[in-house]
Amino acid sequence: MNITIVGTGYVGLVTGACFAEMGTNVTCIDVDKEKINKLKKGISPIYEPSLDDLLTRNIKQGRLHFDTELKNNINNSDIIFSAVGTPPDEDGSADLSYVLQVAKTIGQNMNKYVCIVTKSTVPIGTANKVKDVINNELKKRNINIDFDICSNPEFLKEGSAVKDFMSPDRIVVGVETERARNLIECLYKPFMLNNYRIIFMDVPSAEMTKYAANAMLATRISFMNEIANLCDKVGANVSEVRNGIGTDIRIGNKFLYAGIGYGGSCFPKDIKALCKIGDENNCSMSIIKATEETNKRQKTILFDKLVAIFGDNLKNKTIALWGLSFKPETDDMREAPSLYILEKLNNCGCKIQVYDPIAMNETKRRLPDVDIKYCDNIYSCVKDADALLLITEWKEFRLPLWAEVKKEMKGNIILDGRNIYDKKELNELGFIYKGIGIQ
Fold this sequence. Notes:
The protein is of the alpha/beta class. It folds into 3 domains: about 1-200, NAD(P)-binding Rossmann-like Domain (Rossmann fold); about 210-295, N-(1-d-carboxylethyl)-l-norvaline Dehydrogenase, domain 2 (Orthogonal Bundle), CATH 1.10.1040; about 300-435, 3-Layer(aba) Sandwich (Rossmann fold), CATH 3.40.50.720. The chain has helices at about 10-20, 35-40, 50-60, 95-110, 125-140, 160-165, 180-190, 205-235, 240-245, 265-280, 285-300, 300-310, 335-345, 360-365, 380, 400-410, 425-430; strands at about 1-5, 25-30, 65, 80, 115-120, 145-150, 170-175, 195-200, 320, 350-355, 370-375, 385-390, 415, 430-435. It has a 6-stranded parallel β-sheet, with helices on both faces. Strands 11-10-9-12-13-14 form a 6-stranded parallel β-sheet. Strands 7-8 form a two-stranded parallel sheet. Helix 17 links the parallel strand 13 (about 415) and strand 14 (about 430-435). The protein is elongated and about 75 Å long. The termini are far apart.
């Protein structure tokens, strides 16, 4: 089977590499010539565990190809995946211009049946817009060619995307015809050998499923952060509360960890888009809007704790940050809480020292004008620091040599944004410890 994937971002590249690993002949398309040239050499534009190995192996085996021209690959493809970006417009709605341009190119150049699959996260009803664009282009050419439109939303987690794709807990596909269903079922059959589930449904339901899933997960995060903030006020411990409610089988224990808010490429964008879809359909989406507002406040909760300790006397204080990316095992800084904290620290005249094993170059790119000292390791990062803020729970931060940390620091304040440290242990070592909802 020959497939083409349009877009070599996070979703498209992982999808292409994983399909190639299963023996499929894959061509990935991107208009960025520099990126494509690097990909042909096996150089990935993103950091994702195991991805580099997949790229190198499948390029060498001749199963994974890269090109800048979609039109040259349409008529030798059985399936075309559209995995281009859908960035938020100023009003929060998803920008479909790239999705519709892909559809236009297909309609202008297709000469045989092809199954077009939307992989990008798109508003409900996008499949119909794609279909209309293709039909309009075919009409201009005075030809009639059968094609199918499907929706196949991704549920990959950054940092474990390859594992998620190769061992999915479910695959959701929206289809309109039996022909499309059979084709998609054939493509995904290698992933079904261990009884992983493929769930077929109508196209609008598949489009909605992606938004609903991300909204539910984001809501659980914001819910627990609100509970944690209340725990701080009333003297409760959010970790104990999480254990207490997580054992309820109706609730479960996933996504119940308090912290400093969600970030990344999916949750913030999809929450905004879902709110906009609700507004357009006269549906208030009040819970989802509250989720977004809670998350905005939570991103600066560590800064608020810092102010509570130092008051207005933050100028020239040296503040160390461990972790910058929005989560471990990625260099993704999109909507990362660290960006909000760094901005506030900079505005207060703090001296900022940071260390992240992967994301420092991306931080430099995003904050070129902010005076930040980028350090080589966790211990040089805390040298002469008045306070240490744990932002991202990378594995190498979990068991530091606290005696070395204490020796290097000038102060003794530790603010734990992920609740990974033991308060009693740190207090006994002479540190003042503050977590999120931890007493």
